[in-house]
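2024-03-11 09:14:02 INFO worker-7 job=invfold-0412 stage=load source=structure_tokens
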């Protein structure tokens, strides 16, 4: 990739040289045939110097919110929906009653199975008494051993019937409980999706409503793998530097044994900050932490799915809305920054126009990093920080040709002087 970029830059440089040669020939021809007339003056361009300061790396993405917990409330037994016990969009707690399905049939089945259980207990008591009598008679040889075995089997069969009846009663009570449909989680309930009087749960568990827990809330967004690795590297370096500083300040720094290493890893795990802004906001009014990075890169997009947990006490963030997510990296000390509008791009990559000797324009290819809120961008390679680059007038500048550089302050002062002079002439 770097070889291709160098080749592209060589191609661009040769093309610039050809243009310069043609311009020189044209100027020579004009000088020879034009009676010594001078060429046009060098164009005026606005220049600035790169800024050095400590910055924080970040990148912006589009994301989608999702409830931290979401539950579908369904009818688990068939029947007619008798009542709705909640207000749409209300806050509910786990266990709150939401719907009632007809209970008469299931109450009757529960009573019937309870009666069958009592009958089974009576048969078991009778079988136990018969076994005791037969056992006593067997001691005097009044009955045979076969009679004892038969009585024992009848006792065991009665005991099994009791267990079976108890299981049927448990199931009947469970189904009776399912007629009272309750919220499975804390959260905000949606509207009822089925009206009273409709048959539910016959062929499949009918969806009655949904409940979402929205505080905190998840924000999912896709991040290019190279960018997220770079951000995590910055954060990791910053944390290691902070840990080393804390150890240096300690009187007796503890050795980083395995238990201490695990403690440090737990302390720093998932601490990358994420800012979130709504579509109608200019800035970012919500802040949270990244808690999940997918372990597989999407081969189609080359991105990793990432998730942040955002506190949402006012419930301003709803599941399913589009948000702007800003992923913050670590601090970049003494970074070189240039205005983003001064950066051009061609087949060789990104570049800026630098003022060289005798005000001749040089095309300098650069590697850019993270954007900043003030419209600048960090430069990771290609500039030393002491250059002067063109900000305005890029279309008038050509590599290899001279320009008249002026700072923004100088240009404004000159325009003000011209305006004052023109006003004086009019008077």
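2024-03-11 09:14:09 INFO worker-7 stage=emit residues=427
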């Amino acid at each position: 990739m770097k070889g291709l970029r160098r080749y592209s830059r060589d191609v661009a440089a040769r093309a610039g040289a050809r243009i310069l040669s043609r311009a020189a020939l044209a100027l020579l021809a004009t000088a020879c045939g034009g009676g010594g007339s001078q060429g046009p003056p060098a164009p005026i361009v606005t220049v600035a110097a790169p800024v050095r300061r400590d910055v924080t790396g970040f990148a912006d993405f589009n994301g989608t919110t999702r409830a931290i917990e979401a539950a579908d409330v369904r009818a688990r037994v068939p029947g007619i929906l008798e009542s709705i016990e909640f207000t749409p969009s209300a806050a509910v707690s786990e266990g709150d009653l939401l719907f009632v399905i007809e209970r008469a049939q299931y109450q009757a089945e529960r009573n019937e199975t309870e009666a069958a259980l009592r009958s089974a207990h009576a048969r078991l008591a009778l079988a136990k008494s018969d076994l005791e009598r037969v056992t006593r008679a067997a001691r005097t040889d009044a009955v045979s051993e076969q009679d004892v075995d038969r009585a024992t089997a009848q006792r065991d069969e009665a005991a099994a019937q009791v267990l079976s009846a108890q299981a049927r009663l448990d199931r009947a009570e469970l189904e009776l409980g399912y007629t009272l449909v309750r919220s499975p989680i804390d959260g905000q309930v949606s509207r009822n999706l089925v009206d009273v009087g409709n048959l539910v749960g016959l062929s499949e568990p009918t969806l009655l409503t949904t409940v979402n827990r929205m505080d905190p809330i998840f924000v999912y967004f896709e991040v290019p793998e190279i960018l997220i690795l770079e951000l995590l590297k910055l954060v990791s370096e910053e944390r290691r530097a902070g840990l080393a500083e804390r150890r240096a300040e300690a009187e007796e720094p503890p050795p980083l044994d395995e238990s201490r290493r695990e403690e440090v890893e737990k302390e720093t795990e998932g601490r990358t900050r994420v800012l979130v802004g709504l579509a109608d906001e200019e800035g970012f009014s919500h802040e949270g932490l990244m808690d999940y990075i997918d372990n597989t890169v999407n081969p189609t997009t080359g991105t990793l799915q990432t998730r942040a947990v955002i506190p949402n006490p006012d419930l301003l963030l709803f599941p399913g809305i589009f948000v702007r997510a800003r992923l913050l990296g670590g601090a970049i000390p003494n970074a070189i920054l240039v205005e983003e509008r001064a950066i051009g791009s061609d087949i060789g990559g990104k570049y800026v126009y630098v003022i060289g000797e005798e005000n001749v324009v040089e095309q300098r290819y650069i590697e850019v990093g993270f954007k900043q809120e003030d419209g600048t961008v960090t430069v990771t390679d290609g500039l030393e920080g002491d250059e002067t680059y063109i900000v305005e007038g890029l279309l008038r500048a050509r590599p290899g040709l001279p320009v008249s550089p002026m700072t923004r302050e100088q240009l404004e002062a000159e325009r003000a002087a011209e305006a004052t002079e023109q006003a004086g002439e009019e008077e």
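2024-03-11 09:14:09 INFO worker-7 stage=report msg="Residues 113 and 167 are 9 Å apart (CA to CA)."
2024-03-11 09:14:10 INFO worker-7 job finished
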